[in-house]
Specification:
By secondary structure, the protein is α+β, with helices and mostly antiparallel strands. It has one domain. The chain has four helices and two strands; from the N terminus they run ββαααα. A two-stranded antiparallel ribbon has the order 1-2. α1 crosses α3. The two termini are 27 Å apart.
Length: 119
């Protein structure tokens, strides 16, 4: 059984699921068990060797990060904290999944050469 865990405030687990934990509105690094939130993203139904499947998973991870991090807020400080939460959550989830196409999509790299290598 493959199961991955990361330290608080970002914890992800994987085995055909990726779960993201993060402090809801607490500043980065100040998470407590009472403020942590988790969203489980299932992707066992996706073909991660295809661009379509990898793209769908990447969008699911981004949606989950939005759910976990909440709204950006009105002040610059709140918006910055949200951006740190969102980007960190997506990055941790992408890393936990460990798929090169999803990683390339997240990094904005050209994934076409990766697909050619997978064939």
């Amino acid at each position: 059984m493959n199961h991955c865990k990361f330290p608080v405030p970002l914890i992800l687990s994987c085995l055909a699921t990726a779960a993201v934990w993060i402090a809801g509105s607490a500043p980065a690094g100040a998470a407590s068990p009472e403020t942590e939130r988790q969203v489980t993203v299932h992707y066992g139904d996706l073909d991660l060797a295809s661009v379509a499947g990898a793209t769908q998973l990447y969008e699911r991870l981004r949606t989950a990060a939005r759910q976990v991090c909440g709204e950006p807020g009105l002040t610059l400080g709140e918006q910055h904290a949200w951006q740190v939460c969102f980007e960190g959550s997506v990055e941790q989830a992408v890393t936990a999944v460990g798929n090169p196409i999803v990683s390339a999509l997240a990094a904005g790299r050209d994934y076409r050469s990766l697909i050619a290598l997978n064939r």
